[in-house]
Design a protein that fits this description.
Layout lengths: L1 E4 L5 E5 L18 H5 L9 E3 L17 E3 L2 H19 L4 E4 L7 H4 L2 H9 L3 E3 L5 H11 L15 E5 L3 H4 L4 H9 L3 E5 L5 H4 L3 E3 L6 H14 L5 H7 E2 L1 H8 L4 H8 L3 H13 L3 E5 L9 H15 L8 E3 L10 H5 L15 E3 L3 H5 L26 E5 L3 H4 L3 H8 L5 E6 L11 E4 L8 E3 L6 E5 L12 H11 L11 H9 L17 H7 L1 E3 L26 E2 L3 H5 L25 E6 L13 H6 L6 E4 L1 H6 L7 E5 L4 E8 L7 E5 L33 E6 L7
Parallel strand pairs: 5-14, 6-13, 7-8, 7-11, 8-9, 10-20, 11-12, 14-15, 15-16, 21-25, 22-24
Antiparallel strand pairs: 1-2, 3-4, 3-16, 17-18, 18-19, 21-26, 23-24, 23-26
Helix pairs in contact: 2-19, 4-19, 5-14, 9-12, 9-13, 9-14, 12-13
Length: 714
């Protein structure tokens, strides 16, 4: 991104950098309006503390300031440090829980000084599973490292399969490559229960039922192996466990798969043949796939497809979930887990799963997972209750599953809560202290990526407004007030960038793939490709073309000895989600519910901005239904409807269209406080976890829907 700043130091324009080969000089619709966020009139500019006697709970939008009073940074930090010390002494340091994710995605802002602080404090560690853990673990079980087809090379494909990937809506910089490929004769197939922007533009949209992705992937493999369409030479040389996989997929006939997915048997066969016989064939899988109860296995099975067909051998073929495994930052230097040894615990603290925050705050166990386990399965913990919560880079009051349980936990009078934020969100309504945060234009950071292979320096463009401060400064200052004397708490952002790069005596990084990168070069150039991607025309990067690979066997693993050793199924299998049309619960709640993301927000970010809300107006606070489901319930387009299950309820407006198959309904994530009744889609989602990675199961949800008689005209 290029930022134009006027003589008064005000940013007046943002635009894409035309020299960046992937983004090619344009921005997505979200970020193109980013200055609306930077200069929003309701931005938090000063530290605030809750006024005495003001109860925690939802606040009226625009009047949140009435619940807080301004204090200085010194007052806020001193008071917070004193309360954290008191909490640690009374309940143990593990009673203090950080909660963060990717509200800022720079290497420093995401996880550096904050990790040092909580390691030294002895506070609980957070298992950051809410977004990508199940799929990332699944990919690594197959390949050992998250690499993928370079985004630029999708333009060379003759077939692109977007599996749970709304490229046009949420991966827009890949879309020009898709268009180029289609101009050259490629076909686009979209596999998604919802008719996304991308599905509407596809040559073939396959609207499978939610949570049946593993069945379809196994059915595709059945047809490929039955008809001898696999790349036998590639499989023999580079993979492990093909015989066992072949035995497993033998049971996944097109007829059985069709019954699960809602496809016909001939469609399963057609898809398998087209995928296996078209070269190059590129598979773009996104993380929606792994947000069902069987999602880790589904992602694992899908990831196996390009290995079975040898698609990696052909430039423009292969697949992509994430490229983040290519960025080998020196995280130990950044996060300093060694500091845990001098904490009051003398060891690494327990890990609390962010996807079970409601349970943790309601004192029902913390949904932890054991240190070092590969599959990282949730289990109860005997540690102390959570008595202090420090939220940054996230809005759990909106995004965490089982919203009502989270809200009950946040309302606890004995829970001390600090929130570092830009705006009054669903979470700040429950805070004891609210601290003003910076946008990425207002601090310096270094960036990796999960969609390309360039290291980027994000230089500070403007001064922060008011007294806003970045994460690095906040946790550095707080550490010093806690009495932590280690010199690392005084490191500057530039020093920490050099630590992330593991800069050697010659000023260049010593990290794998970054040996040619120096901080001074990044300051001059902005972005630099990783070493294996420096000359893509003469020496194109094609991952997984030859081993050894970063797996225990050194090969791509169809069969996982790692999972077998843990007592888990070493081969993928379809297991219907606990909440699905095949479950007992479907008798009471017969509709499968998709708690979807918006095209014009980033999870809950941007949801409070009028310009972005206008772009989402067509589907905002709407429940999308199939005409058959609407008709059987006496619901017409535009009717007020009630959506409910045992966890909660939500009142929305019916939008009867062709966006979902029969038996499926969908609504989009929003801030709860922007809904008239203070609820959002997570009032309906559960804290049940994925089969691998202990991630959130946002897309394994059952509900019932009825016309809302309370909203009827008199």
């Amino acid at each position: 991104m290029l930022v134009t700043v006027d003589s008064n130091g005000r940013a007046i324009k943002v635009q894409g950098d035309p020299s960046q080969p992937v983004t090619q000089g344009f921005l997505c619709g979200k970020v193109a309006k980013y200055l609306d966020r930077v200069y929003a009139p309701d931005r938090i500019l000063y530290p605030l503390q809750r006024k005495p006697g003001v109860a925690k709970g939802p606040l009226v939008r625009g009047r949140e300031h009435e619940a807080f009073e301004r204090v200085s940074w010194d007052e806020a930090l001193d008071a917070i440090a004193a309360r954290l010390k008191q909490t640690a002494e009374r309940y143990g340091p593990e009673s203090i829980l950080p909660y963060s994710y990717a509200g800022t995605m720079g290497v420093l802002g995401y996880g550096s000084m904050d990790r040092r602080f909580f390691h030294r404090l002895g506070g609980s560690q957070l298992d950051r599973t809410i977004c990508s853990e199940a799929g990332g673990l699944a990919w690594n079980l197959v390949y050992g490292k998250k690499l993928g087809t370079p985004t630029e090379d999708f333009a060379l494909a003759k077939l692109i399969v977007a599996w749970g990937a709304n490229i046009h809506g949420n991966n827009v910089h890949l879309w020009p490559m898709v268009e180029q490929a289609r101009r050259n004769g490629a076909r686009l197939i979209v596999i998604d229960p919802y008719r996304t922007r991308t599905a509407a533009l596809a040559d073939w949209h396959i609207a499978i039922r939610p949570g049946t992705d593993a069945a379809l992937a196994l059915g595709i493999m059945h047809v490929i192996l039955r008809e001898g369409l696999e790349d036998r030479a590639y499989v023999a040389e580079n993979t492990h466990g093909i015989e066992r996989l072949a035995e497993r997929v033998g049971a996944y006939t097109p007829e059985r798969v069709a019954a699960w997915t809602g496809m016909t048997a001939s469609e399963v066969e057609q898809l398998a043949r087209e995928y296996a016989t078209t070269r190059p064939a590129a598979l773009r899988m996104n993380y929606g796939v792994q947000r069902s109860e069987n999602g880790g296995t589904a992602a694992r099975a899908i990831a196996m497809l390009p290995a079975l067909t040898g698609a990696w051998k052909h430039r423009g073929g292969g697949g992509q979930l994430s490229t983040s495994g290519a960025f080998q930052w020196n995280k130990r230097a950044l996060e300093r887990p060694d500091l845990a040894a001098v904490s009051p615990l003398g060891r690494l603290a327990r890990i609390v799963n962010m996807s079970t925050l409601g349970q943790a705050l309601e004192k029902q166990g913390t949904g932890n997972r054991e240190q070092g386990t590969e599959n990282q399965t949730a289990h109860p913990d005997s540690g102390p209750d959570v008595h202090a919560l420090f939220v940054y880079n996230s809005n759990p009051g909106a995004v965490a599953p089982n919203h009502n349980a989270v809200r009950r936990g946040l309302e606890r009078t004995d829970l001390f809560t600090v929130v570092h934020e830009l705006f009054f969100t669903d979470t700040t309504d429950y805070a004891d202290y609210v601290l003003p945060a910076t946008t990425f234009l207002e601090h310096t950071d270094i960036q990796g990526a999960y969609g390309h292979y360039f290291v980027q320096l994000s230089s500070q463009a403007i001064e922060p407004p008011g007294e806003a401060q970045p994460n690095v400064w906040l946790f550095s200052q707080l550490a010093q007030r806690m009495g932590f004397t280690e010199e690392c708490f005084r490191d500057t952002p530039e020093q920490m960038i050099e630590q992330a790069l593991a800069v050697g005596p010659d000023g260049h990084s010593t990290n794998a793939g970054m040996e040619h990168i120096a901080l001074d070069d990044l300051k001059q150039q902005g972005h630099i490709p990783l070493s294996f991607h420096r000359d893509p025309e003469d020496h194109p990067f094609q991952p997984y073309t030859a081993g050894p690979f970063s797996t225990p066997s050194g090969k791509i693993e169809f069969y996982s000895e790692t999972l077998a050793a843990q007592g888990l199924d070493p081969l993928p299998a379809f297991v219907a989600p606990t909440e699905s049309r095949w479950s007992e619960g479907a008798k009471r709640f017969p509709l499968e519910f998709l708690a979807r993301k918006n095209d014009n927000y980033m999870n809950s970010t941007f949801a409070n901005l009028d310009g972005h809300r206008k772009m989402e107006a067509r589907t905002s606070q709407k429940l999308e239904l199939h005409p058959l489901d609407a008709e059987s319930r006496g619901i017409a387009d535009g009717d007020a409807v009630r959506v409910w299950n045992d966890r909660g309820e939500l009142r929305l407006t019916a939008l009867v269209n062709g966006s979902v198959p029969a038996g499926v309904v969908a609504a989009r994530l929003d801030w709860a406080k922007l809904h008239p009744e203070g609820a959002n889609v997570n009032a309906l989602t559960s804290e049940r976890l994925t089969d691998l990675g202990a991630g959130a199961t946002f897309y394994s949800v059952l509900v019932e829907v009825a016309k809302d008689s309370s909203q009827s005209s008199p």
